[in-house]
Amino acid sequence: MKTNDTIELLLNRKSIRKYEDRQVDEDTLESLARAAFQAPFAAQLGSLLLSRDSEKNPFSAPLLFTVCVDCHRLELIMRARGWKMKTSDAAMLLFGVQDACYMAENLVVAAESLGLGSCYLGMAPFAADRIAEDYSLPERVFPVVQLAVGYPAEDPPPRPRYPLSFSLFEDSYPELEEEDVREAMRVMDEGYLAQDYYRRADYMVELEGEREETFDFDDYSWTEHMCRKWGQWHAAAENLLGPLRRRGFEVTRDGGEEGS
Ligand SMILES: Cc1cc2nc3c(=O)[nH]c(=O)nc-3n(C[C@H](O)[C@H](O)[C@H](O)COP(=O)(O)O)c2cc1C
Predict the structure, then answer these.
(1) Is ligand 1 within 6 A of the CB of residue 17?
(2) What is the DSSP pairing of strand 141-150 with strand 117-121?
(3) Could you tell me the pLDDT band of residue 158, with boundaries at 50, 70 and 90?
(4) Structural domains of the chain sorted by starting position, each given as residue range(s) with its CATH number in brackets
(5) What is the pLDDT of residues 43-85, one digit of tens each?
(6) C-alpha pair distances (Å), 35 with each of 38, 105, 106, 151
(7) 260 confidence band (pLDDT: 50, 70, 90)
(8) What pLDDT does residue 258 have?
(9) What percent of the chain has pLDDT over 70?
């Protein structure tokens, strides 16, 4: 494998959940923002909200970015030329999430390169009503994810990933065999156990229903965590469709229909 400073930076990145009580200066902030907005785009459909209120920000981070899908600005520009959006909201959201996330990840990498750490927070879409109120969001702007940024006060090891053979498929998607699945689970579980990840975090997702608890921190690891998290959390469609609708997005509406 070839490596260089950029590859090393990417391979050593990890989510940071403890931050120094130290502000980020204006020049650094401008670098982060410019690097973020230089990401590839479909239609510049990403914008960032910023909070520097470290007392309120998650993990007391000095910076909290809320990454938004933002159709509002494009529609203002189109209106200035006498045009209306015809493309469906489903398509705009799909492209918008891409623009927003490439932009956010540019910010993450830029932050790393300047000695800053970061951590995404995924619940923003479900909190869209509150975020919209806090930041006076116009319609057609929807928060997709938040990103805490600051100087790290911890230095955990990089977290494991699936083996390449379980993620990179050349020419055709393979039929994944039981042994491939077991190997992926082994790599992830042994990797997280070697870091004592869940014991250090003092966190196991509690079991609901009939299943009996048989795990402790000696064997509770990534696959069990994923199964419990995604196998028990019922994020009802309406919990997303409601906030989307209230921000002016109707995902089942076709492009050009009334109200779009
Ligand atoms: C969309 C998204 C949502 C996330 N939400 C959270 C979150 O709510 N809380 C948190 O502590 N970490 C969150 N993370 C960070 C992941 O837990 C983390 O990236 C993953 O465990 C891999 O660890 P690493 O980033 O250290 O490699 C999120 C990451 C992404 C990409």
Answers:
(1) yes
(2) antiparallel
(3) very high
(4) 5-155+235-246 (3.40.109.10), 164-232 (no CATH)
(5) 999 999 999 999 999 999 999 999 999 999 999 999 999 999 9
(6) 5, 10, 6, 18
(7) very low
(8) 58
(9) 98
Is 195 a pocket residue for ligand 1 (Cβ < 6 Å)?
no
Residue nearest to atom 31 of ligand 1 (CA): 120
* 89, two tokens: 């909201």
Report the b/e string of 205-234 with b at 16+ CB within 10 A: beeeeeeeeeeebeebbbebbeebeeeeee
Does residue 115 have its Cβ closer than 6 Å to ligand 1?
no
Q: What is the pLDDT of residue 190?
A: 98
Q: Which residues contact 101 (CB under 8 A, 6 or more apart)?
A: 46, 67, 144, 145
Distance 13 CA to ligand 1 centre (A): 12
Tell me, what's the pLDDT at 185?
A: 98
H-run or E-run covering 46:
strand 46-51
- The CA 160 to ligand 1 mean position distance, Å, reads 13
Q: How far is the CA of 121 from the centre of ligand 1 (A)?
A: 6
Expressed in angstroms and rounded, the spacing between residue 120 Cα and the centre of ligand 1 is: 5
CA atoms within 13 A on the CB side of 113: 15
Q: Which tokens belong to 108?
A: 């993450």
CA of 80 to the centre of ligand 1 (A): 39
Ligand 1 neighbour 122 (Cβ under 6 A): yes
